[in-house]
Every structure is written in structure tokens, then in C-alpha cells.
Design brief:
This protein is of the alpha+beta class and 804 residues long. Among the domains are: 147 residues, no CATH class; 111 residues, no CATH class; 96 residues, Carboxypeptidase-like, regulatory domain (Immunoglobulin-like, Sandwich), CATH 2.60.40.1120. 35% of the residues lie in helices and 21% in strands. It has 29 helices and 32 strands. A 6-stranded antiparallel sheet has the order 5-4-3-6-8-7, covered by helices on one side. α27 links the parallel β21 and β22. It is globular, with a radius of gyration of 29 Å. It starts with a helix and ends in a 10-residue tail after the last strand.
């Protein structure tokens, strides 16, 4: 009996022992990064009472081992147990679908299990929702047919629309019905993973034959990787509008969550992510082998070599790879030209190589040695003639047209708030609704209607923020408030005055913000706008004080004595008004997720009043240096931290900590920002923007500035009409590569422009592509010296005038 108990106890311990997955050291690091949240996050993988099965425990360990910092901060992951639910739903697909048996454990862990694709802000909720909708549609299909059907479903819910580079999550893309290429890609990858089909992010940093870049989906079916354009269905895999373009690319990169253990060539491991070289999937390739030497010919190990391409009129870095112990690095790439560079300790090398140069020696010399290159014939990989035996028929075209109608017939919400969801569909706002509601408010109904339309499926959140209630909807459409309900509405939160102030606040949002700011987030920014106005009056009180508005009349309803918004904005000088609206008031700092953060910062400052005010803000800056840990190992996946998340974790990248400082300034009514040109941290003080040094950023050598005087050299139309960052660009040398310089405009140069630039070596490039994608690139080198003027002429190469 005793031996039986020992055997049973050993079996029990074995069942809950940590898997031999080699993740223990990674998990120890991650526990440190998680800080006070570690116990909650790790409890299910460390407890013998865990409700998870051994496979699910191993899955969660894998996710935690490579979890980005932003996910440690996300409350839905911390308290909602989303990682555990994610693992359980993912494991379910292995038995639910016939193709589950084809997917190996490694393939499953890296391309089905992950809860995120790239830098989308929210990662919860999509897997069970997508599974419920897609499982009935794909269950009886083959794996390839299922992948194609998933893309049709994505097309029913989203289509392409350009926007800024901040990623939105897949549920927001569905609610909006639109997204840029990377956001469509995120949606499609999540949809594929929800039914157990491996999928991953794929992109080219820059096209070689034309300007721009692109991102798309790689999907694994029946033993091979294939591709398609997200939300762009086709009759077969490996067909897309960019097929011919991808065949001419110099580099295609696929992304893997964690450390990749497959057979494909790995470019590099960076930020708990592996970058895979997928170029050979799309076109002809060869290997470029580079050896880096110092000035005496000795190999240099563990040093970056940067591969760059001509794009948007400039020479832009595509990939940086580190040399091995022999000073060598190899790259499998397309059959075209590169610019290759490296640098170390005031020595540098910059070289152009053609397709015939497959064994290259880079020898570091004085940077002035690079100036001998004045003109380059840049040639991309050649176009490939493909035979297309599969053609869409008229029925397929009809299906695509019907999917467009499905997408625009209603706006999906995925919301659960009462009053804005009927069978998962959100009614569209109409001008009648807006005009009736605003008849007693005095706002321009056309502008508000346009705002609601811009918000698409998120318009109900904006409506509730303005009017403190969701629109009521019945089966026939909108139900308009009767007089009794209208009267109740008018006395809530300042009535007409409150609506006007909230409307003024709402106009700080971009169209993309309108699509993903929820009511709770808007209310947090409004209610806790500053320390002084962290009250029920919220932004109303702030606007009234900022604009020195004398309120008169009752606290609700319209009064002829109450000035409109345009009248009280005139009370303040226009530049001061704009500065307060754009900086202390604005709910966004830069590209942080659309989450609440003001309330947390106000609460923190009320508990730490000694930080609120000091000469030069030195007390606040010292507290940040001593209490917030700099996370140097930046994650490639995951969005930036909001100020509240950085404060909660007491950890963040240098950018995260500087963003926290901006937030702490703004809730103290101090305008603060990242400079739109230099991206330097700045605070408004003594009627001027002052650069702020928190003492946490690695100090660059402080350099003086000189003046660049730039003018067109010729009167020909090609030079006069050439656009900055399109046909020509300016770059500055940064240790081992050229970095693009933003001169602040995109229009043609005109007669002359002056720009203040830091000392250094600069390069002006110009060139227009021919029809085959090639270009003659002119390189004009110049040095900017302290206190000096340097005159440079911009000239387009004569031989590369754009073909008519």
C-alpha cells in the first residue's frame, strides 16, 4: 500500500511538473519584467490546482516566455485570464477540424496559438468570436478551401483604407469595416488561427522596382506555406494583385512569435521574435556574402551590416544583420542591386553593389572616402512572366460584389452595451437623428453627422460620450427622445453647455481615433483632464476656465446670453488656444494604444503632491529616474505603453518613460510633446518649447548646427516639379547607415529653402524611376558645419526624366 501511494504521488507530481521546454530561464526574466503582476499572471502555470490541462499549461508557458511588455500591462490579460482562454480555444481547433492532425506541435505553438500578430493594442476576445462565426462555414472543407473561405469572410467585414501607422486590433477593424494593409493582415491572420490554420505576418520592407512597401498573409495548408492578400479573396492561393511585384522584391520577411525552430532561413532574432527570410517563396534568389574588415584588413565580428534600397527618393535601410565570428554575413535575396554600409568608431563604409556582386568585402575607412560615389544605375530584379491558368468567372465576381454589399449594409459592432446592437448589427446614423437631437443644442448638425460617419461602427460610443446615453433602437430603426426624455437629457452634465464642451474635446480626435476610442476611454480623458478639473465638470470646466468664459443663464437648455463655441474661443489668443487644445487637452500623445490613462495619473499625483511642482520640474524627473526601470530589451511585437501602464509596471522603454512624463505634464496643465520634426521631448516654459532631458536616454554627441541653403539647379520641369520624399531626399550619416531627414514638406522645392541641421555628413539623392523600375540616382555629398552656411543645388539626373 505504501509503495502504491508513492507511485500515485509521483504520477501526480509528474502531471503538474514544469514541461522540459527550456523556457525556465526566459520565464524567470519575464517574472522580473511583470513586477507586481507576476504572481497573478503565472499562477495557473505554477499551481497544482490549475484548471488547465498539461498541454494548455505548456502553451501558456510558451506565450509567457515571449510575452511583450505591453501585454504584461494589459488588464484583460492580467485579470481576465485571456492567455488561458486563448490556449484552451486554440487547443480545441486541433480536434475540431480534420486538418488539426496535420499541424505539428511547433507549427501550432508558433503560428496558431499566439494571441497577437504584431503591434495591435487589444488582443482579447477575437478567438472565440471568430471561431463561432467561421467554424460552421469551414468545418466540411479541405484545409486549402477553408483558408480561401476565411478570406471571403474577412472581405465581408473589412476593406482597404489608408491611415496612420498605428495598428488597430481585429475587432476594431471589423467595427470600422476598413483598415490599411497591415490591419487587414492582422484580421485575416487572427481569423485563420481561430480555426486552427497556421498563419503569419509577411512583408517587404520596401519594393525595389517602385516606391512604398506592403504587408500580406502567409498561410500554411497541406504541408506548404502559401500567400494571399488579406481581405482580397481570390479563386486560389498564391494569387494576389502583388504577385508580380513580390516576384521582383529584394527581401520578403515573415514573423514568428518566439524562437523559430523550423527549417526556413532565419534573418535574425530580435525582441522575442524571429524574422524569417521568405524571399525564395516569391521569386528567383541568390546569396550575397559580405565580409567586413577594419582598415588593416582584419575581420570584424558581431558588427551590424546594413542593406538599403532606393525608395521614395532616398536610400532607406531594409535590414540590418550582424557579422559572425569570421566577420561575415550572408543574405538570400532577389536578383537586384543593394546599397550596403557599416561603421565603427569614426570609421565607415558605404558601397553600391549590382546583381553580379555576390562576394563583397567592406573595409572601414574615413567617412570622406564614401564621397567618391556620385552616380548610380540602380536596377531592381527583372519582371517575371507568369502563366495564369486559373481565372475568376462571373459567379466569383458576383460573390465579391455581394460581399461588398454585406459589409456596407450594416456596421458590425461586437459590442455588448444595451441599445446599440441588434443581431450584431449597428444601425447607421442618419442626418434626421442628428438634426433632431441638435435642434436645441446649437451645434452644426452637418459636422456632427460627418463625425459619426467617420466613426463608422464606433459611432454609438461617441454618441454616448456627447449625450450621456446610447441612441435607442427598435426593430424599425431609431427611436427619437420624447419631450420628457429630452428634458432629462438636457440637465445631465451641463446640458447644452456640456455637450458643446465635449464636442470641442471630441474634435481633437483623428478619424482613426473616432473608430477605436470607447466611451470609457473618452470619459476618462474628459473627466480627469487635469488635476484642477478632476471633477464632475470635467472638460466643460476646463474649457470654460481656459477660454475665460463667463457662464450665464440656467445650467441646462439654450439661452440667448450664452455665447457659442466660436465666441468663447475668441476670448483667448488663437495660438494659445491651439496650444492648450493640442497639448494639455488632447487625449493622444503619439502612437500609444487608445486606452484610458489620465485618471490613473491624477490619482498618482494626488497621492504624491511633492511631485506636482518644483523648479525646472527636477523633483518629478528625479522620481522617474529612480523609480521607473528602463526596459532595454525592446519587444518587436506589442504596442507602446500608455502613461498609466508604464506607471503601473514601473518599467518601460525610454520612449515609454518619456511618454509618461508628457502625460504627467499634461494633467498638470503643462503643455508637453514630442517635437514633430526632431521627436525630442519638449515642455512649454517661458513662452517657448524647451527640450527636456530626463537623464535616461543614451546621450548622443551634442553637436552644433549649421544652415543648409537648398535650391533647384536647373529650370527644367523635372527638377522644378520633383517632390521631396518622392523623387529626391536628404539623409544624414548615423554610424553605419543613412537616416532620412524630414525637411517638413512634400511639395516641389520651388526657388529656395533654408533648413537648420546638426553638424555631420549629409547626402542628397535624386532620381526618377523608369517604367521598368530602374533609376539613375544622383548623389550630392555635403558637410554641415557649426555656424556655417552650406549651399547645395538639387538637380534631377537628366537621363532619367520620367517616360511619358
Amino acid at each position: 500500500m505504501r509503495y502504491l501511494l508513492i507511485i500515485l504521488l509521483a504520477a501526480w507530481n509528474a502531471a503538474f511538473a514544469q514541461p522540459g521546454d527550456g523556457l525556465d530561464s526566459l520565464l524567470n526574466v519575464q517574472r522580473t519584467r511583470a513586477g507586481a503582476r507576476a504572481d497573478t499572471l503565472f499562477q495557473q502555470v505554477n499551481s497544482k490546482n490549475s484548471p488547465l490541462r498539461p498541454k494548455e499549461i505548456a502553451d501558456v508557458r510558451f506565450l509567457l516566455g515571449y510575452l511583450p511588455l505591453a501585454d504584461f500591462a494589459a488588464t484583460d490579460i492580467l485579470y481576465g485570464g485571456w492567455l488561458w482562454w486563448n490556449a484552451q480555444f486554440a487547443e480545441r481547433t486541433r480536434t475540431e477540424f480534420t486538418w488539426g492532425a496535420q499541424v505539428s506541435d511547433e507549427m501550432f505553438r508558433q503560428f496558431v496559438l499566439p494571441h497577437r500578430v504584431t503591434q495591435e493594442p487589444y488582443v482579447h476576445g477575437w478567438r472565440p468570436m471568430f471561431f463561432d462565426e467561421l467554424a460552421p462555414r469551414v468545418k466540411n472543407l479541405s484545409m486549402t478551401e477553408a483558408a480561401l473561405e476565411v478570406n471571403h469572410w474577412c472581405h465581408e467585414h473589412a476593406t482597404y483604407r489608408p491611415s496612420d501607422s498605428r495598428d488597430q486590433d481585429p475587432l476594431t477593424t471589423i467595427r470600422a469595416g476598413v483598415g490599411r494593409c497591415e490591419e487587414e493582415m492582422i484580421l485575416a491572420i487572427c481569423a485563420l488561427r481561430s480555426v486552427g490554420i497556421p498563419a503569419r505576418q509577411c512583408y517587404t520592407p520596401y519594393w525595389a522596382h517602385t516606391d512604398d512597401n506592403h504587408a500580406w498573409v502567409e498561410v500554411w495548408t497541406d504541408g506548404e506555406w502559401h500567400y494571399f492578400g488579406a481581405c482580397e479573396p481570390d479563386v486560389a492561393l498564391d494569387r494576389a494583385w502583388f504577385t508580380d511585384a513580390a516576384a521582383r522584391t529584394m527581401l520578403v520577411v515573415s514573423t514568428c512569435y518566439g524562437k523559430y525552430k523550423g527549417e526556413e532561413p532565419v534573418l535574425r532574432e530580435v525582441g522575442r521574435t524571429t524574422l524569417i527570410n521568405s524571399t525564395a517563396v516569391y521569386g528567383k534568389t541568390h546569396t550575397v556574402q559580405v565580409k567586413l574588415e577594419d582598415h588593416s584588413g582584419q575581420p570584424i565580428a558581431k558588427q551590424p551590416v546594413v542593406f538599403s534600397l532606393f525608395n521614395y527618393g532616398s536610400i532607406l535601410p531594409a535590414i540590418s544583420l550582424e557579422t559572425d565570428s569570421r566577420g561575415e554575413v550572408g543574405l538570400v535575396c532577389g536578383l537586384g542591386d543593394w546599397f550596403i554600409s557599416a561603421g565603427k568608431e569614426e570609421k565607415a563604409v558605404f558601397k553600391y553593389i549590382s546583381v553580379t556582386d555576390t562576394n563583397v568585402i567592406l573595409r572601414l575607412q574615413h567617412p570622406d572616402s564614401m564621397r567618391t560615389m556620385n552616380s548610380v544605375e540602380f536596377t531592381p530584379p527583372p519582371a517575371i512572366q507568369r502563366s495564369d491558368s486559373v481565372k475568376p468567372d462571373s459567379l466569383f465576381a458576383c460573390r465579391l460584389s455581394n460581399e461588398d454589399k454585406i459589409r456596407e449594409s450594416f456596421w458590425k459592432t461586437w459590442a455588448v452595451e444595451e441599445g446599440i446592437q441588434i443581431d450584431s448589427a449597428c444601425w447607421k446614423p442618419d442626418s434626421l437623428l442628428v438634426s433632431k437631437l441638435l435642434s436645441k443644442i446649437g451645434l452644426d448638425s452637418a459636422n456632427l453627422y460627418s463625425c459619426f460617419i467617420s466613426a463608422r461602427g464606433n459611432w454609438g460610443n461617441l454618441y454616448k460620450y456627447l449625450f450621456r446615453t446610447y441612441p435607442e433602437i427598435d426593430e424599425e430603426g431609431f427611436t427619437y427622445p420624447d419631450k420628457a426624455r429630452q428634458a432629462r437629457f438636457e440637465i445631465v452634465r451641463g446640458g447644452a453647455y456640456g455637450v458643446r464642451a465635449r464636442w470641442q474635446f471630441l474634435q481633437q480626435l483623428t478619424d482613426k481615433d473616432k473608430r477605436d476610442f470607447t466611451f470609457d476611454v473618452l470619459d476618462d480623458h474628459s473627466m480627469h483632464i487635469t488635476l484642477e478639473h478632476e471633477t464632475m465638470e470635467g472638460c466643460e470646466g476646463f474649457y470654460w476656465r481656459v477660454y475665460d468664459l463667463e457662464l450665464s443663464g440656467p445650467s441646462h437648455g439654450e439661452s440667448p446670453d450664452v455665447p457659442g463655441m466660436h465666441e468663447f474661443t475668441e476670448k483667448m489668443h488663437s495660438t494659445t488656444c491651439a496650444r492648450f487644445e493640442k497639448y494639455p487637452v488632447a487625449p493622444r500623445i503619439d502612437k500609444e494604444p487608445s486606452r484610458a490613462w489620465r485618471g490613473s495619473l491624477v490619482t498618482f499625483l494626488r497621492a504624491n503632491k511633492k511631485l506636482i511642482s518644483s523648479r525646472g520640474d527636477k523633483v518629478m524627473m528625479k522620481w522617474l529616474r529612480e523609480n521607473i526601470v528602463i526596459d532595454k530589451d525592446r519587444d518587436r511585437l506589442g504596442p507602446p505603453l500608455t502613461p498609466a501602464e508604464c506607471l503601473e509596471l514601473k518599467r518601460g522603454t525610454v520612449d515609454d518613460i518619456e511618454r509618461l512624463y508628457v502625460g504627467l505634464c499634461r494633467v498638470r496643465e503643462i503643455p508637453a510633446r514630442f517635437d514633430p520634426v526632431s521627436n525630442s521631448l519638449q515642455r512649454w516654459e517661458k513662452n517657448n518649447w524647451l527640450n527636456v532631458d530626463l537623464g535616461i536616454r543614451e546621450k548622443r554627441k551634442v553637436t552644433a548646427t549649421g544652415i543648409l541653403i537648398l535650391k533647384p539647379a536647373d529650370s527644367d520641369s523635372a527638377t522644378l516639379n520633383a517632390r521631396f520624399n518622392r523623387e529626391w531626399g536628404v539623409q544624414v550619416w548615423r554610424t553605419d547607415h543613412f537616416e532620412d531627414v524630414d525637411l517638413g514638406f512634400e511639395s516641389p522645392l520651388g526657388k529656395q529653402m533654408n533648413a537648420e541641421l546638426s553638424e555631420g555628413l549629409y547626402l542628397l539623392t535624386s532620381g526618377a524611376r523608369r517604367k521598368d523600375g530602374s533609376a539613375t540616382i544622383r548623389l550630392e555629398w555635403f558637410n554641415v558645419k557649426a555656424g556655417k552656411e552650406v549651399k547645395v543645388e538639387m538637380r534631377m539626373p537628366k537621363e532619367t526624366m520620367k517616360e511619358e
